[in-house]
Design a protein that fits this description.
Elements lengths: L7 E6 L1 H4 L8 H16 L3 E6 L2 H9 L8 H24 L5 E6 L1 H5 L1 H16 L3 E6 L13 H11 L4 E6 L20 E2 L2 H4 L16 H14 L2 E6 L5 H8 L2 E4 L8 H7 L6 E5 L1 H8 L4 E2 L3 E5 L7 E5 L5 E6 L4 H7 L7 H5 L6 E3 L4 E3 L1
Parallel strand pairs: 1-2, 1-5, 2-4, 3-4, 5-7, 6-8, 9-12
Antiparallel strand pairs: 7-8, 9-11, 10-14, 12-13, 13-15
Length: 368
């Protein structure tokens, strides 16, 4: 029942599911995973796989230790490992009559609206051709400043772009616990999260492994994006054979329930940004105006944090630095610094040219 009504399912698998601690490829697991995917496809469900593992497989081939790699060397290793990864999927999936394709994305491909729409069309065409897109971050060209850095957040962005109903993050634990289950025997599995701020208040989550880059905190960031995009998210243990079938039958997983989202595609894209370029701190009057569906004007802005250009994603915070909205700025940070606190009629005289009166227009803003 859990996945029955999901027309589009995005599944993220981590490096540790493909390569074990001894750097041995888990062929038996991948074969069982392929059978899970075939079952989903037999029910006419569209599937996207976001797979880590390129650098891990590159390190295996070159006999390198991932932890000692510098950025420029890791980009080369990713290039080598990406071929190994796709060959591995192709070899195993083709035996089960599954066609695969490869999509490599950078952060900018999803943060820029036009490129995001291009990616969306590519996914849709691949679905029509009955191919399974296998997505990874383009580590061969991404720098530390323009990287997702983990495939959890990338997967959540892919879920938003494809308008997915469910995102499944296959991890090395059963789900989200109230504390680290590897350290505390009395740790309890959190079965359902409906309100992130309320249900996870005062909890911190730390976790990492040798081959992966994302811990529980990145998964919670992914959940925020999914919930606001109208997509359910599941964290489940992927170490079992036939992981999809196993967790759905065992009922051992964490479900993040999406907020019923009536946002249009553009606003879903705005709220799902994983890399806002700056922040605006506003006064109580502006906060009240935003709550009532108004645009953000310069008069209500108290402070600018960060550097951003016109059209960039930014966060809007209240005086206590609580995030209340996200949007696209009509001005650069330099311009906002000049006009903040001023009436809209003064903007032309301050900047020396005619511009918009709203710093963030209500049509370019989503309240969180």
């Amino acid at each position: 029942m859990l996945l029955k009504n999901s027309k589009v399912i995005v599944i993220k698998i981590g490096s540790s599911l493909i390569v074990d601690k001894q750097k041995t490829i888990r062929n038996k697991w991948l074969t069982a995973f392929a059978k899970d995917i075939k079952k989903l496809k037999s029910k006419n469900q569209k599937v996207v796989i976001v797979s880590s593992g390129a650098i891990a497989l590159g390190c295996k081939k070159m006999n390198y230790n991932k932890r000692n790699l510098k950025l420029d060397k890791s980009q080369a290793i990713a290039s080598i490992g990406q071929i190994e990864l796709m060959n591995l999927f192709s070899k195993i999936f083709s035996k089960h009559g599954l066609n695969i394709s490869q999509i490599l994305l950078t952060l900018e491909d999803t943060e820029e609206r036009r490129r995001s729409l291009n990616a969306k069309r590519t996914f849709e065409n691949l679905f029509e051709l009955n191919f399974i897109p296998i997505v990874n971050e383009n580590d061969t060209i991404a720098t530390s400043e323009i990287k997702y850095g983990d495939n959890d957040r990338l997967a959540s962005r892919v879920a938003q772009i494809t308008n997915a109903d469910t995102l499944i993050l296959l991890s090395d634990v059963d789900g989200l616990y109230d504390k680290n289950p590897k350290l505390y025997k009395d740790a309890k599995l959190i079965k359902k999260v409906e309100n992130l701020n309320k249900d996870l208040k005062n909890k911190t989550f730390k976790g990492n492994n040798e081959l992966g880059s994302g811990g529980m905190n990145t998964k919670i960031e992914a959940a925020k994006i999914c919930q606001l995009s109208g997509c359910n998210m599941i964290i489940a243990n992927g170490l079992h054979l036939n992981p999809i079938e196993t967790f759905t039958k065992s009922n051992n997983f964490t479900l993040f329930v999406s907020k019923t989202s009536k946002l249009d595609a553009r606003k879903k894209w705005i709220i799902s940004s994983v890399s806002p370029k700056g922040e605006l701190i506003i006064d109580d009057g502006a906060k009240k105006a935003l709550t009532n569906g108004k645009s953000l004007l310069a008069a209500g802005i108290k402070q600018v944090i960060g550097k951003f250009n016109k059209g960039d994603h930014i966060k809007i915070l209240d005086k206590s630095k609580n995030e209340i909205a996200r949007g696209l700025s009509s001005f650069s940070s330099e311009e906002v610094n000049k006009i903040l606190g001023h009436h809209s009629k003064e903007i032309k005289d301050i900047l020396g040219y005619i511009s918009k009166s709203e710093v963030v227009h209500k049509d370019d803003m989503v309240k969180v």
